Each structure stands twice: as structure tokens, then as C-alpha cells.
Amino acid sequence: ICGFLCIWINYDSDNQRYIFRQTKGECLIWGKKPSKIVAEYTTASGAIKKNLLLLDGWWKVSRHFHYMPEILASICWSCPAQTSGVVGPYFYSFFLTILLIDRAFRDDDRCRKKYGP
Question: CB of 38 within 8 A of CB of 101?
Fold first, then answer.
């Protein structure tokens, strides 16, 4: 049950961001108009562009919120092995955690360069 709940939360958080972007922020997230940041950045060619960043729903909880249910789901799927004496069932959770932590740092660095400190 925990694994399926994590999958649903991950889907719902991605869906909130998708709907927010498709409607340019003119939508309801959890029954209310979402808070947002209009972030400007300059492209390599010098053009000024804008992005909308969602600050409500699951995205209010944390910046890379959708990583958490992915990690928790992988742990839930590994738990039935308990302490079988092998690392195999837990390797995916360990690998995924390291991968997503590294990706979060790279995303933060990319955004810092794109939008400024």
C-alpha cells in the first residue's frame, strides 16, 4: 500500500506542475489559486525569457519534492526482503538515493546559473 501511495503522490506532484505550466498559472492547486514566481533569465543569444515557478501544492513542501516518493517507493518495494543477508534488494534504493541527491545538486546549480543567486 505504501508503494502505491508513493506512486500516486509522485504522479500527482508531476501532474500539478504540468497543469500549472499548461495554464500559465491560471489553475487551481488543492482548491486554490497557486502562488508562483515569475523568473526572468537571459538566453545565450541575449533574449530575455520568463518562466513560471510553482510554489504551492506538493511543490510547497520542498524544491525537489517528487524525488521523495520515488525513494520511499523503492524502499517499500525492498522491505519484503527484510534482512535476507544480501544487499541486492536494497541496492536500487541506495543507487536511486545517490542518483537523485546528485541530480538535485546539479539542478540547483543549473538554476542558480540560469536565474541568479
Answer: no
Q: Examine the pLDDT at 87 and tell me if it is beyond 80.
A: no
How large a percentage of the chain has pLDDT more than 70?
Answer: 96
Cell numbers for 53: 515557478
Q: Which helix (H) or strand (E) holds 112?
A: helix 88-115
DSSP E strands in 1-117: the ranges are 36-42, 48-54
What is the DSSP secondary-structure string of 18-37? Answer: HHHHHTTT-S-BTTBPPPEE
More confident: 23 or 76: 23
Long-range contacts for 71-77 (Cβ within 8 Å, ≥24 apart)? Answer: 71/96, 71/97, 71/100, 72/2, 72/6, 73/2, 73/3, 73/6, 73/7, 73/10, 76/2, 76/3, 76/6, 77/3
Tell me if residue 43 falls in helix, strand or coil: coil
Cα(62)–Cα(57) distance, integer angstroms: 10
